[in-house]
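User: I want to check something. If I give you two sequences, will you return the structure for each one separately, not as a complex?

Assistant: Yes, each is folded on its own. Here is the first sequence with its structure:
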Amino acid sequence: MNVATASSHESTKLTNSTYDVISALAKDASFLYSTVDTYLKDAKQDNRTDLVDLWNTIRQDKQRHVQLLREALSKDAGDQHPK
C-alpha cells in the first residue's frame, strides 16, 4: 500500500485524521442531542443529585469537545486544496 492510499480514502478524499475528527464530532454530538438528557432525567427521578451534577459536568465537557472538534474540522476544510 502506498502512502497516499494509507492516509486518505480514494472515493471521499478524506484523510484519516479528518475522518477521525468527523467521527468523534458525531459521537459527542449524538451524546449531547440524544443521550445526556435521558441520563439526567433518570438521575433526577432517582433523586441522585450527585449523578445530576456528574451528567451536567460531562455535558459541559462534551460541549467543549464539540467546539474543539468543529474548529479542527473548519481548519481542515480551509486547508483542503483541489488537486
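And separately, the second sequence with its own structure:
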Amino acid sequence: MGEFIDRSDEPFDGSRDQAGPLGPAGPPRAVVRARRPLTPQALVERAEVVPRSIEAETVLRIHRRRREQHAALYVAEMRDLASLWSEDDEHDEKTLHALAAAAALRVKLPRGEDRVRDAHVAVEHLPACLARAGRGEIPVEWFEWLIRSVLRLSPAQRLQVDERVAAWQLEAIDVERFYRELRLLVEWFGRAVVQESPEEQRGV
C-alpha cells in the first residue's frame, strides 16, 4: 500500500467532481485520509499516555470494546428501531410506534420519536456509513452527528452524502477532521442545512 494522503489543508474544491452534460455530478468527492493508520501505537500516542502503562492499556481496551462490541449492538438497535417506521403510517400509528420505542429505550415519547426517525434515516439513507459503523470503523458519536447533519437534506441528497463519507478513511482520521470535512460537504447543499458542530455549540 502507498502512503496515505492527508489533504486537510486543501480547500474543499467542487472542481474535483467532474461535471456531466447536465451540470455538476453532485457534491465534491474530497480525498479524506489520515497521514498514517490508527494502530494501537498511534492511538496511544494520540491519547498522550505512556506506552505499556496502565493508562495505555485502558485506552486500548476502551477502543477495542467500542469497535468490537458497542458498534455491533448500536447498529442492531438502529435496525430494530427502523422497523417501527413506516412512511404510510397515520399520525396515531406513528405515535404508537414511537411509544413502543420509548418504552423499550425507557425514554420519553419525544425521544422515542426522534430515535425511530433517526434509525429510519440511518438504514434507508445512510446504509454505507451504517455498515462501517457496524464494523467499528466510524464511532457511534460520529455517526449520530452525521444523522443530525443530514436531517434537512432530501433522501437523494442524504444518499450522496452517505456515498462520499463512506469513502473516507474513517477508521483513522481524527475527530476534528471528521467534523470539518462533514460540515464542508453538507455546506455544498447550502448554508441553511448546516448544523453547528458540538464544539461550536459549546462555544469552544
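Because they were folded independently, the notes below concern the second chain alone. The two ends are 38 Å apart (CA to CA). The CA atoms of residues 67 and 176 lie 19 Å apart.
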